[in-house]
Give the backbone structure.
Amino acid sequence: LPATGYRVVRRSLVVGHGGADFAAAAAGLRDWRMLRTAGLRVRTDAPRVAVGVEFASGLGIGRLRLWAPCRVVWLVDEATRFGFGIGTLPGHPTSGEEAFEVSLAPDGVVRFEVRAFSRLARWYTRLGGPVTRALQSWVTGRYLRALRSVVQH
């Protein structure tokens, strides 16, 4: 668990059922599609998620796009579980870690979970206070719906 002063988020959503849906969900995480489907731009030279890969996700339009640099710090790739965790890098609006994980339960349910802990790291995110936290919550919801959309297509 993170130190005092970090906000903890844990949200999940059923995104499908069965092995084919699990494979689609894992592929959508592996190739950055979930982030792009959630409306974020992704800057990276890596076509796939891997430990040590650095990337930046951008939210906004044109010059008003806010970039958030991160590094993949762990990856799990098992028969019924796929996911990865990212840590923020200098320049990110928050400081913390976020995890994206999809699992296939014995009953066939495919669940996507987003876990995060963060604190506001930049003057403008601290100034935004509750608005910044509301934006973070909105983006988390977009992640969940985006992976469900990836699985359904």
About this structure: The mean pLDDT is 90.
